[in-house]
Amino acid sequence: MTGPTLPVRMAPNTFEHFYRGGARIAELRGLTLDSDHRPEEWLAATVARFGEDEVGLARTQDGDLLRDLVAKDPRTWVGDDPARLGRASDSDTGVLVKLLDAAQRLPVHVHPDREFARRHLGCDYGKTEAWYVLAADEDAAVYLGWSDDVRPEELAERRDAQDSDWMLARMNRVPVRRGDGILVPAGLAHALGEGVFVVEAQEPTDFSIVLEWSVTTSSREDSHLGLGFDTAMRAVTHHALALAGLENLRAHVPATAESSGPMRCLPEAADPFFRIDVLAPPEGETCPVPGGYAVALVLDGTGSLVSERGEVDVRRGEVLAVPAAFGDWQLRGRARVVLSRPGQGWPVGLTGEVRP
After folding, report:
1. d(CA 352, CA 74)
2. Which of 12, 37, 206, 329 could form a disulfide with 307 if both were Cys (CB 3.0 to 4.6 A apart)?
């Protein structure tokens, strides 16, 4: 191993986007933003925004691109087994993590699954994603899936007409509160509501098919991944998401809960893709975490990440990339941390390739 064996602090990584927001990110991370259109921060990102070379890529506090560090020494960062298996690229960490602070409702949009991405986008990952709600205005909500089946022909007509009212009227409006976890499978139409602040874990791509671009600064031509809508709409689920199916996509960790182990924020259906946990040990106790690549966001308090390799002090607002070489570790102190990790067994099953 030649890379770092201790968790590495990440520099802020916000950038201009097509919707408004960012104030809650600035408050948590101790930033001053020069625009009200910086609603996202990509945490420890080793992939760039769709169509860009470097926008979205995260840097350490020392100024190094994490992408380059991982590509140079994957065994240190992701571990021996993932490094020899068929990851999507040399810098693949298996997960993309973001902060999203929506000061307006996001547009109705859809992400493709892996089969569609392999066939049409030349990528082994689709974009199943999930949200863990850090804060939400009163009466805040998200929109998730169709409440009734929609006909493909009519959806295409309403998309072309930019009929927002029609789309929203046919979607499940889901009230959310702090501590909610929601899985958003690929193919499902969805939109984050105004006043919702989340940690988002997702497959490491930036593939979005936007059905409602008129509520953003984007355009129709920016909305179909360069495929044309005839092809892109094949990624969209047109069937209703029933109440039982909706409940299977939800979980909850109370905002003040404490535990001597990681608290699962997402339903088990998320496990093949990624995992989000809250670490919040009771006073005088620690919270153990198995080794492996992870992205840690300190929500509150102070503490330390401790393993046989050493110790790193942490405080509210910090983001750290945790290399697999750190080994099994534990959170000590009175801190509250959101930890995002690659899916169970990653990257087995991604490409089927094994590297020497």
Report:
1. 18
2. 329
Runs of H (alpha helix) within the chain: 23-29, 66-72, 74-78, 80-84, 114-120, 152-161, 164-169, 229-232, 243-247
Spell out the domain ranges in the chain. Answer: 8-252, 263-342
pLDDT value for 1:
52
* CB neighbour list of residue 268: distance below 8 Å, 6 or more residues apart: none
Q: Under CATH, which number does the domain 263-342 receive?
A: 2.60.120.10
Closest listed residue to residue 347, CA positions, set 85, 33, 20: 85
Give the whole-angstrom CA distance, residue 287 versus residue 294: 15
CATH entry, 8-252, from 3.40.1260.20, 3.90.930.60, 2.60.120.10, 3.50.50.60: 2.60.120.10
Q: Name 240's Cβ contacts closer than 8 Å, sequence gap at least 6.
A: 145, 146, 147, 148, 149
- Phi–psi pair at 173, nearest 5 degrees: -90, 120
Q: pTM of the entire structure?
A: 0.96
Verify cis geometry, omega within 30 degrees of 0, for the bond prior to 175. no
Map residue 127 onto helix, strand or coil: coil
Containing 323, the helix (H) or strand (E) segment is none
3-state secondary structure 151-163: CHHHHHHHHHHCC
Give 278-310 pLDDT, tens digit per residue: 999 999 999 999 999 999 999 999 999 999 999
Q: Using a pLDDT cut of 70, give the percent of the chain over it.
A: 97
pLDDT at residue 355 greater than cutoff 90: no
Query: Which residue type, as a one-letter code, is found at position 244?
Result: A
Average of per-residue pLDDT across 317-325: 98
Question: How many Cβ atoms sit within 10 Å of the Cβ of residue 122?
Answer: 7
Contact between residue 267 and residue 344 where contact means Cβ atoms under 8 Å apart? no
Does 8-252 match 263-342 in CATH topology? yes
Q: Which of 256, 250, 330, 251 is nearest to 290 (CA)?
A: 330
| Largest pairwise CA distance in the chain | 60
Task: Please give the mean pLDDT across all residues of the chain.
Answer: 96
